[in-house]
Design a protein that fits this description.
Order of helices and strands: HEEEHEE
Number of strands: 5
Number of domains: 1
CATH class: Alpha Beta
Structural class: alpha+beta
CATH topology: Trna Endonuclease, Chain: A, domain 1
Shape: globular
Strand order of the largest sheet: 1-2-3-4-5
Number of helices: 2
Distance between the termini: 31 Å
CATH architecture: 3-Layer(aba) Sandwich
Length: 120
């Protein structure tokens, strides 16, 4: 699969996974200046920014969260705060990481919550 195509497929899989788990999706691919958030959702009165990484290689499956840099996390937070401000949403906020591994037609989803406390 092409790099961009697999990334978009992973975001669609993550979106479906979140909706099945009662997350209300508020924004997809939200951008502010040079900052971007893959998905923004509302779950149990909390605003959550989701960073989605997708791979088709088993070798990377358990290490995908390390592909997220401190700078990228800062940009996710900046875009999410902007989203909250312009939409008048003032709720507790967190950042979650979703790894989607697609191999041999099988899909594995790994969801790590509150990553802002251990990246960096």
């Amino acid at each position: 699969m092409q790099k961009n195509k697999i990334g978009l497929e992973g975001e669609e899989i993550a979106k479906a996974y979140l909706q099945q788990n009662e997350v209300q999706i508020l924004a997809i691919d939200y951008r502010f200046l040079r900052c971007q958030v893959d998905l923004i959702g509302l779950f149990k009165n909390r605003l959550i920014a989701y960073e989605v990484k997708t791979t088709a290689k088993d070798a990377y499956a358990n290490h995908m969260i390390y592909r997220l840099s401190t700078r990228q996390l800062q940009r996710i937070l900046k875009a999410t705060y902007h989203f909250m401000k312009i939409n008048g949403i003032y709720k507790e906020m967190q950042v979650d990481f979703i790894a989607v591994v697609i191999t041999d037609g099988k899909i594995d989803i790994q969801h790590t919550r509150d990553i802002q406390y251990f990246i960096g």
